[in-house]
């Protein structure tokens, strides 16, 4: 399993950035393969979520979990079907705003690893580039005014998302992974 980390600074208050990122309705705004996310139930230590979208021209649906820890401005997530996948995001104080730190633990699917090897010469390098693109997308969304509830122009309610599924076929929420 690979460990991939990245960090980016955002010129917005940390509490505001965390509130935006931890609201699952906003995920389609900054995760390009995701089209719908919705709650699927609550457990003592996490919420089940569902995400659906499209990656590499193919639709996906999957179930996962997410745990938001507002007091630490931390979010953790994983997939129920991909046991070797989990992620963590923390929003910290930084000069001029917030710093988002992202960590993914995963083994890319064989077809994804082959593509990353072919396109980038190295799976780890391709994964790091994809992680950087995801962080860039988060920064752009937060700094360029996309931080309203529900992310896109029209906020989505949880009832609109009941059929969604999580974390996509790539297991990273990034079309390049």
From TrEMBL:
Biased composition (Basic and acidic residues): 150-163
Highest taxon listed in the record's lineage: Bacteria
Compositional bias annotation for Polar residues: 167-177
Annotated stretches, region: Disordered: 146-177
Cross-referenced Gene3D superfamilies: 3.30.530.20
InterPro entries, sorted: Polyketide_cyclase/dehydratase (IPR019587), START-like_dom_sf (IPR023393)
One Pfam family in the UniProt entry: Polyketide_cyc2
Coiled coil: none
Protein's UniProt name: SRPBCC family protein
């Amino acid at each position: 399993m690979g460990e991939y980390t990245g960090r980016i600074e955002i010129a917005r208050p940390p509490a505001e950035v965390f509130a935006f990122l931890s609201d699952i309705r906003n995920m389609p705004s900054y995760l390009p393969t995701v089209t719908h996310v919705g709650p699927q139930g609550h457990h003592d230590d996490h919420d089940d979520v569902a995400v659906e979208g499209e990656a590499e021209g193919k639709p996906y649906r999957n179930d996962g979990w997410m745990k938001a820890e507002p007091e630490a401005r931390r979010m953790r997530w994983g997939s129920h079907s991909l046991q070797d996948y989990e992620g963590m995001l923390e929003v910290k104080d930084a000069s001029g705003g917030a710093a988002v730190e992202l960590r993914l633990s995963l083994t890319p699917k064989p077809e994804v690893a082959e593509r990353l090897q072919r396109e980038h010469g190295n799976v780890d390098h391709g994964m790091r580039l994809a992680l950087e693109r995801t962080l860039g997308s988060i920064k752009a969304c937060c700094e360029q005014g996309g931080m309203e509830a529900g992310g896109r122009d029209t906020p989505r309610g949880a009832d609109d998302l009941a059929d969604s599924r999580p974390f996509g076929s790539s297991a990273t929420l990034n079309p390049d992974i």
